[in-house]
Amino acid sequence: MPYLSQIIGKRVLDSVGQPMGRISDLAITIEEPFGGEFPPVTLVLVKAGDAHLRLRWEMIADISSLERGNVCLLDQPRARVTVGREKEGEVYLKRDVLDKQILDVSNARMVRVNDVFLIEDKDENLRAAGVDVSFRGLLRRVRLEHALVPLARKFGAKMTRQHIPWNQVEVMRGENGGRIVSKLPTDKLSRLHPTDLAAIVTQMSPTQRAALIETLDDETVALALEEADDEVAADVLSDLDVERAADIIEEMDPDEAADVLGEMDDPAAANAILEHLDDPEEAADIKHLLSYEDDTAGAHMNTDIVLVPETFSCDEAIAHLRREDATPENLHSLFLEDESGRLTGAVSLAQVVLSGGETPLKLLLDGDLITVDPQASVIECAKLVAKYDLMALPVVDFNGALLGIVTVDDILDEIAPESWAARARE
Fold first, then answer.
1. 395: helix, coil or strand?
2. CATH number for the 4-92 domain, one of 1.10.418.70, 3.90.580.10, 2.30.30.30, 2.30.30.240?
3. Less packed terminus of the chain by CB within 10 Å, N or C?
4. Per-residue pLDDT reduced to its tens digit, 364-395
């Protein structure tokens, strides 16, 4: 199995032994139907003095010479050589792939290509089989693999190759705005866990992020941005047009949306996004959350909650959920209010389902009601959650009306050491 690094620099002779130059690159075709999962090499780029010859792969007479010797034989003399031209859908492995970041879909990460490995098929075509992202691949390129790998192993280093099959990677747009050499696997990315997708977004450059976001639907982007650092999410929104940014914000939980908009460098841009929201009520909720000081319960509470009258029976509560299509992310409990709008307690959804029938919800209330006001610190919230073993902590105003809830996840996002978050993104 030859590697690109073993082929670059080899001398090329014609069929009568006359030197043509040295191989400087190989081109593959990624366009269907010729590309496929393992695209074939279609052109050999040969540096002949100041000129660059693009030779068709069919002119290579002896493929085995790529590995065993210093020459690559052509099937005709130089005088009869016809030169191919670069075509749409062709990618040069050294220019476009080597040292570039690629998306390793299977492992949800961005990696740098240190070498490309190739295989010969039954028709003697050379195909791109995958990439080597290991340090060993880098040593191979500088001709130190055979000298240093055995030495490193004596000191306990494994020095294994890290091959990623070509059909499991996607080449991304370069920093200089170069072409996108392969379509992003939207279906695969959409199926990734939001945390994994957030990790990919975090590792990307702004140009690469833009290319990725363009291929994904609003809900998928919103879920990923909720898991990403607020600064990264704010940068993503800042690079989008205001309509697309507003569509994504509408798919986010209000508290998460407020966190991201609060990190945007331009307050006017954040306000413009809010003005483009289709739901004025949601925009008002987010603005209200933005009015609270950082590190307070009000700033981090989730206003997407289910609040029902305490006089409801279990069946009425379930019917209400179905009728309103109420599916908040944290639908663990139903919160109850009295006739004056004051929060009286919470019952778990499991209790409601198991009790059923005409059982009044207020009969299911058990224990003291633990609440905080919106100015309470996140640390204070964390102490209460730990002390009373709560999944969510209600936030109420001075009249006792429910404003929102602070969840365990919200608290951990704020108080967990940054090193934890960094390790989670790796």
1. strand
2. 2.30.30.240
3. C
4. 987 788 999 999 999 999 999 999 988 889 99
Q: Report pLDDT for 33.
A: 47
Given a cut of 80, is residue 61 above it in pLDDT? no
Interior angle at CA 387, CA 382 and CA 390, nearest 5: 70
* Residues contacting residue 39 through CB under 8 Å, at least 6 positions apart: 28, 29, 30, 91, 127, 128, 166
Distance CA 89, CA 31 (A): 5
**Partners of 127 in the beta sheet?**
40, 119
How far apart, in Å, do the first and last CA atoms of the chain sit? 31
Give the residue with greater pLDDT, 309 vs 75: 309
The domain locations on the chain are 4-92, 95-100+105-171, 184-291, 307-414
Length of the chain: 426
Q: Which CATH superfamily, name and number, covers 184-291? A: MgtE N-terminal domain-like (1.25.60.10)
